[in-house]
Amino acid sequence: MHDRNPTALITGASGGIGYALAKLFAKDHYNLVLVARTEAKLIEFAAELQKQLGVTVKIIAMDLADPQSPQRLFNQLENDKIAIDILVNNAGYGLVGPFAEVPLGESLGQVDLNIRALTEMTRLFVAPMVARKKGKVLNVASTAAFQAGPLMAVYFATKAYVLSFSEALANELRHNGITVTCLCPGPTETGFKNRAGGENSRLFKVLSPMTSQQVALVGYRGLIKGKPLVIPGLRNWIVAESSRFAPRRMATAVSGWIVADSD
Length: 263
Prior knowledge:
Elements: E1 7-11, H1 16-27, E2 31-36, H2 39-53, E3 57-61, H3 69-79, E4 86-89, H4 104-132, E5 135-140, H5 153-172, E6 178-183, E7 188-189, H6 192-196, H7 202-205, E8 210-211, H8 212-225, E9 229-230, H9 234-245, H10 248-259
Parallel strand pairs: 1-2, 1-4, 2-3, 4-5, 5-6, 6-9, 7-8
Helix pairs in contact: 1-8, 3-4, 4-5
């Protein structure tokens, strides 16, 4: 990775939005560092990208929910002399269920991955960007960031953090040559709903989800333009904006109804 092509690091890259984003970067001749838990999927995907698009792809199988992982990842790339021009914090997960019934480890796992790992990754990789006075960050949040979410209380709260954090950073770093973009998709066809246990949720059964490719393309374009906030899809934009003006109790009740089973 010592050629002139810029390098993008993408977490949660083995499927869904991260997978679709990696393809978009590769098409624009970015070299890639792909991080995910499943090594087999990464190996297959890297081979596909290298064969089809001729970019250099480094894969790192790692669970970023492990508190040691972000620093280990940063050190490994430093040792390999790979500078990251664009950081995409896409890894994250949620679970559907009453907070008092969801295992505590799962709730804390969401906080570890969606908040702590994202924060540490951003801090580690933004510092060299500031030194170079150049770089971009894409943090993937959700339209869940705009209101509280009964039955997904922790997930919605973590995404509110990601949005607030990203908007603040975008303002802080605007004179350093660095842009920070927060991507807030609505329901999206990824592996998310299966991991979340939300197959019967109105979120996916009643609201027709966008595809990962649609969301990734809108997010990618927003990132390249340096937009602080990107909400793919007119309906998702309306939902996000309306929740700012609706009474908070009403917005919370509506989001709880949407997350609940449709049966």
